[in-house]
Amino acid sequence: MTLTENQRTWGLRALLALLLAGVVAWLAANTEWVEVELPLPPRGEAARNRHHATQELLRRLGTTVAKPENLAQLPPQGATLLLTSWHWDFVPQRSQRLQQWVEAGGHLVLFSHDLNHQQLKRWLPVTLLDPERDEDDEDEDPEAPDDDSVDDSKEASPPGNARRPFRPGDLFKLRCYDAAEPDGVAPYYPGGARQYKLCGILVSGRKLQASAPVLWSIDGPHGPFVLRVAKGRGSVTVIQPSNLLDNNRVLEFDNGLATVAALQARRGAVVWFVAEEARPSLLTWLWQEAAAAVLLGAAALLLALWRAARRFGPLAASAPNARRSMTEQIAGTAQFLRQQGPEALLAAQIRALETAARNHIRLYDTLDRGQRAAAIARHTGQDAAALNSALDKSLARKRTDLPATLELLETARRLLVQKASPVSRPSKKD
Fold it and tell me: Whole-model pTM above 0.70?
């Protein structure tokens, strides 16, 4: 029996469907679905501030929390200062001011890795002893549970008294430890349990050592985890677990109780968190401190640029045309006479009169001297014979005759200039 094309197609489809059903059945039989809780990454303030959860905890207890951007000012007396900034000491004398603040009643809180600071070592009453790096170092407490499991399971103890060399990989351990307030100090929570379970990163083998009376502490298997020592009227508290106050650790087990005790937080207390040494930029600082000088300098710069820019005209407006005063005329004439002599002065006066005459008398340049004198006389009313004599440059004159001649020529010139009829208009009589 021969299968048709349609039957072969449906058979292939059925085979593929059976194969797909088998794959689904196999996946269903060999796959296990479980719910897994994944921690969400921090957001907002918690992503920027590693101690945000600690600060919120203190606020809910009624504590006033401050987060200054730098240590330019110290907290009020009796307050607590958690100092974690790396560059707080770049200002001279700041360490001395911090010491005086503590001795006057302030409460300073540090992490153990800050005890080796050069400016703090000379006056802090707490020192940090480094672990002995030799082959006889013992392992960490084998009964300390691992923090990754977050349970009370015990680690396997090494067989017998087996020991191994110190390894750098064992330096930092994130574990939970059983700790307690020693009998020699007053409990921070009266009537409460003196035992704590603290979780955090510890440097294996390092110990805190006090050089002054101990006010309070939480001791672990190998020494104090948190140690408060008197300093003057104040105190210095050192926390050894470096991440005890972090957002993801402060609420684990008894970390919160130890944090509140270390910071001496209570209703009405003041706690400062100084984690940075932020400073405004140079331009911002100049504007804040010397705005008037900045504005004055900017105005002077703009004025200098404006004066140095390319100009499209004269620096100053041109003075309007005006007749010289008699004083200026006399002074100018005397100066010209002294430099050029009387003949040059007479020639200049004749040229000035002829220039004015050309603007008022038609065909002035075609006339002879007598005709010119007659034409000028008709326009000015002056004596034609006197004008003819004055226009004669070759005539020898005495110095005593020069003023009268100059006066006649200047008077005729001014009368011509004052006439309103220009030379462009046709004249009936010339």
Answer: no
